[in-house]
Every structure is written in C-alpha cells, then in structure tokens.
Automatic annotation (TrEMBL):
Membrane-crossing residue ranges in chain numbering: 32-51, 58-79, 131-148, 168-187, 244-264, 270-288, 300-322
PANTHER family: ACYL-COA--STEROL O-ACYLTRANSFERASE 1-LIKE, LONG-CHAIN-ALCOHOL O-FATTY-ACYLTRANSFERASE 3-RELATED
Gene Ontology terms describing biological process: lipid metabolic process
Membrane-protein topology: Multi-pass membrane protein
Location within or outside the cell: Membrane
Name used for this protein in its record: Wax synthase domain-containing protein
Residue span, Wax synthase domain: 192-278
Coiled coil feature spans: none
GO MF, one example: O-acyltransferase activity
Family: Belongs to the wax synthase family.
Amino acid sequence: MEGEIKNFIKVWITVIASLTYCYFISKNIPKGFIRLFSILPIVTIFTILPLNLSSIHLIGIPSFFITWLASFKLLLLSFDKGPLSSQYYDYSHPNSSNIISLSRFISLACLPIKIKLQNPSSQIVIKPKSPLYYALKVLLLALLIPILHDYKQYLHPSFILTLQWIHIYFIVEIILAILAYMARFFLGLDLEPPFDDPYLSTSLQDFWGRRWNLIVSDTLLSTVYEPVGCICTRIFGTRWAQHLALLAMFAVSGLMHELIYFYFRRVWPTWEVMSFFALHGICLAVQIEVKRCFSGRWRLHRLVSGPLTVGFVLVIVFKLFLPQYIRCGADVKAIREYAIMGEFVKGVIQGYLG
C-alpha cells in the first residue's frame, strides 16, 4: 500500500508539472494548431500515467480526472475554448481579472468540476444538494460494502448487479461532491452539482442530458458534439448533423470507458462497454425523432415514463456495462481495497499517536 501511495504521489507531481507547462504555453503561444501540437505531448503523458498504478480506486481517479477530463480541457484550450481559457473564465466571473492564476488553472484542469455561469438561461439550473443528502449516501455506502463482501454468495445474481451499480453510482457521486465542496471552499467558485437524481429520469434525454454526470456531458458537448455538429451541418444539414454529433459523443464516451477498463485489467477490450454507449446513443437519437414527430401532442405520464427509463438503463447496464467490470475482478478488488485502506489509515493514526 505504501508503494502504491508513493506512485500515486508521483503521478500527481507529474500532473501538476505538466499543467504548469500548459499554463505558460497558453500565455505565450497563440491559439491554433501550434498550441495544439505543443499540448499533445502532455495528453500522451496523461494517457500513460494510470499504468503506473494497480489499485482500482487510485487508477480510477487519474484515468477519469486526468486522462479523460483534463486532456479534453487541454484540447479545448488549444483553440482558447473551454473552462481553462481566459474568455470562459472572464465570462463566468465578470468582476474579476481575465488572467487566470496558475493555481486556479491547475485546479480547474485536474478537478471534475463545472463552473456555474452567470447567465442561467443558457444552462440547466440544478438546486444544490445539502450536506445531509451526501451524508445519507455515505451511510448507505457504508452499509452496502459489508453486504457485497460478506453476503454476496447468499444473494440473487440480479440483486448483486443492482447493488454493484448502486455502489459505483454512490462512489462517483460522493467523490465528485467532496471535490466540489473543496473547490468552493479553497477557490471560491460557484459550481454546478455533478448529478441531479438520475433515478428520477423520465426519458433517456432527461437521464443523459440533465441528470447523469453533468461534468462529463458538458465536456463531451464542447469537445465532440459541437465541432462534429458544425462540420456535419455543412454536409448533411441540421437535422442529421444533430444525430451524427450525438452518436459521435456517445462513441467517444464509450472509447474512454473502454480505456479506463483497460487500465483496470490491462487486457484488450471486449467492446461491451462501447456497445452500451452506442446503443444508448442510437436509442436517444430515435427518441428525439419520435418526440419531434409528435411535437408534444402525446406524452407518457412521468409515473410511466420514469420506471420505463430507469428500467431500460438498468437492463442495458446489467447486460453490457457491468459484465466487463466484474470479469476484470474490479468489484472484488474494490471491496478488498476498502479493508486495506482502512488498515493503512489505522496504522498511520496509531503511528502518529504512538
């Protein structure tokens, strides 16, 4: 465990040094392809960094925060777009200087946070969750872990899959919420919540666009959906461009998830996760067309559409998303690491007190 912690620290030292380089690059090289070529080596380094780790939890953090989100933010920065650009920063904080500091640049790059803009009409307004809400999630997670560890053999496989999915959702939401609170406290930023009760979704469009992991959705919209949509509009027209951009966004999300699974298992992907996102992209495109055809003349009640949406998502999760997670042993390894981390923290405390 100590060796893994040391490797984790080395990874983050590399991240901070790399982002410092990118900060000065953005100040001294004009936007465009020259800046892009100067940043691409850093994106390559960020892709390699998770290979230095073996812990499921420690791999998950840099692969999601750095290899995916930070790399995409840097690609946007190449053309002076996204949350790292001075234009975005100045627009979000009109009373502040348009020169972003190094510390804030690094924080915005490597933390999965989304700044709340000043014009709420251009974005989804989500009511922030109370600390009690997250405390309840932590309590439920603490109750869930012993069940998955000690009573797994006594439970039905479908119920186990449900608990595994809840476990993943709680872990991701709690980590993102903790980091958001830290960013608010230390950086004074007004941030958007990362989730908005996805289990209350009434359609796939509602689930993916307004409730599930809005940090990723916002990043994919800027880096994939908008440029692909702009290019395809000139060739196919607005209607088809919307669907092609949507499919491209889900394809990129699938590829990034496959890459994260590769870090976990270090074997060639089986493309089940890619199929999961491709299927959702296709179904979402069909749903948009159906809504367009009916133009609001007919709509299922939310008491019907809600369970149908959540049920559909869970079925596809069980069939395509979780099997690869379980096959690579991530579920067992993750539960085992909780005990290891607990013993490590206990040893550190005892050593400090003794």
